[in-house]
Amino acid sequence: MKFLALIIIVVIISCIFYSYRPFINRGNVSIANGKEAQSTAEDYAQQREMMVEQQIVARGVKSKRVLDAMNNVPRHLFVPVGYRRGSYFDQPLPIGSGQTISQPYIVALMTEMLDVDNDDIVLEIGTGSGYQAAVLSTIVKKLYSIEIIEELGIQAAELLKKLKYGNVEVKISDGGLGFPEKAPFDAIIVTAAAPEIPASLIEQLKPGGRMVIPVDNNSSSQDLLIVEKDEAGNIKTKSTIPVRFVPLVKGRKVTE
Question: What is the DSSP letter of 28?
Fold first, then answer.
């Protein structure tokens, strides 16, 4: 009986190992090895599918629009070559200038919380790698994205254009100011933590609109908030989960 139980345990462990094998480093090879992983488009597509099932669906994200976007946008192309082995891992990765691309689950979760569709015009604060912008662009009518680090903003804009995400416009500016020339917006997504919800962004949110933003709390951490403006202009906020983002400071770096 004990021998049978041991065999069952070994089989279960083997199944788990092979299910996660595409996400495991082999032979002590670092994710950041300075070389592009020798993976084909088919390999990456398989890794994306596993990412969606194991990291996103398993944690409760249900929106078909969001799941389709996460399955179709090639995250590895928004990751520097030296880190592409980890493109579909459940973790953030460096993108240069001391910034990171957010873990896939957080990108999917914030996109679902935003609750947008193909009629919406959206503002993103913190372009970063351009990955969140690419995901949103497959869902919304038009996306305006602001990045304060010029090098990142230019790189992201060029990559988004190359990959034919043509409904994204990137502006190099201070994200805390928003984009008043293009306001009001149906939705606003902020990918850096603010000490409080910026008044300029509330002003630029359309009545009936929604904002998703990480905000500092009293416990030296951050809460991911859903901010809704009703037709009369009244604001209602809902705290969801604790998160960790770089700070949104006027005249300072913001990123995805």
Answer: T
What is the C-alpha to C-alpha distance for residues 244 and 174, in angstroms, rounded to an integer?
Answer: 20
In CATH, what number does 16-243 get? 3.40.50.150
Residues labelled catalytic? 102
Ramachandran class of 36: left when φ > 0, alpha when ψ lies in -120 to 50, beta otherwise:
beta
Domain positions in the chain are 16-243
Peptide bond into 184 cis (omega under 30): yes
Q: Give the separation between CA 192 and CA 190, rounded to whole angstroms.
A: 6
| Residue 156 vs residues 128, 133, 152: alpha-carbon distances, Å | 7, 9, 6
Please state, in angstroms and rounded to a whole number, the distance separating the CA atoms of residues 155 and 51: 25
Amino acid at 18: Y
What's the pTM value of the predicted model, to 2 decimals?
0.83
pLDDT tens digit sequence for 101-119: 999 999 999 999 999 999 9
Given CA atoms 239, 240, 244, 248 in this order, what sign does their dihedral have?
A: negative
